[in-house]
């Protein structure tokens, strides 16, 4: 089917909580140390929300700032997609809460759960809405409040994650103008149990006993997940490069999911992209699940590395397993 339009990413914003949780803070909570965390992951600190704050606490200002940067009014938005696995509630969706708060009265709104690949999946969905001619302007948010599902007595997981949310405005533009060139999405459900929220839905609903046992916290067998992440991040990136016929020279910045510096480095190597083109902020905000890519895009913009015309490669891998990549030229 011929495309009605190309999806353009025209503005980005990111919001993280005030409170910093450093590796030194975690040393007082679990048997860990700064040297181990930095050498095994690249993380130095993460941000976490205050009591009573949820994803919408970050998502609403992220959405408002993004629209302001783009010079677009909330009433002109056709849709809001929030990628998350830790929304305010399962129902209503955080997208609905954002829609009401910002006054996007004509926008449809839904959450999309695809764990760490959530932002790439949500951006790809928005692209399909726009390329089909269905929508003109979609706000795509990605964020998670991982502190709400972390066991701060489990050193295997609590050091890895943080809270944050970002937003990107996607608009319809000329078919042969700048924008999203292509994307790939993949899944392999055989990895479902290795990285999960075991007590979070209808198969195993929470009970007082299960909550007391901590069954609602994130479970990850990190050592088993690691090689899958390395393999799939590299594979999907090189496949997409080959499919659309680009080389490393066509990538101005690589914006990868920030789960571990030791996963990011081999991905860049396999793509032939030098590390100075790779946007890294895992040291400051850790793994914010669906938030990593928009947070890193906002960081790139702040550092002057993301402007109209910048050629951007996005890639992510996460729970499920699900993974994906997207290539685009930024701006209007
Ligand atoms: N502090 C100190 N020691 C720790 C620790 C911590 N926070 N966490 C684990 N260890 C210990 C382990 O108990 C283990 O000790 P042992 O050798 O005596 O058994 C040792 O450190 C090595 O643990 P291991 O799990 O093999 O470390 P690793 O090098 O694999 O790093 C992860 C762990 C989680 C950082 C890494 O496996 C990872 O990044 N996995 C993939 C994450 C991912 O991409 N997820 C999908 C997207 S979210």
Number of helices: 11
Tell me the quaternary state.
single chain
Q: How many discrete domains?
A: 2
Highest CATH level, the class of the largest domain: Alpha Beta
Q: What small-molecule ligands were found?
A: coenzyme A
- Average pLDDT metric: 97
Strand/helix succession: EEHHEHEHEHEHEEEHEHEHHHEE
Please state the structural category: alpha/beta
Q: Which residues sit in consecutive blocks of at least 5 with pLDDT less than 50? A: none
Radius of gyration, taken over Cα atoms and rounded to an integer in Å: 19 Å
CATH homologous group name of the largest domain:
Thiolase/Chalcone synthase
- Helical percentage: 25-40%
Question: Could you say which overall geometry the principal axes of the C-alpha atoms support?
Answer: globular
Query: In the CATH classification, which architecture of the largest domain applies?
Result: 3-Layer(aba) Sandwich
Strand order of the largest sheet: 1-7-6-4-5
Q: Report on the biggest sheet.
A: 5 strands, mixed
Let me know the number of strands: 13
Strand content: 15-25%
CA(first)-CA(last) distance:
24 Å
CATH topology of the largest domain: Peroxisomal Thiolase, Chain A, domain 1
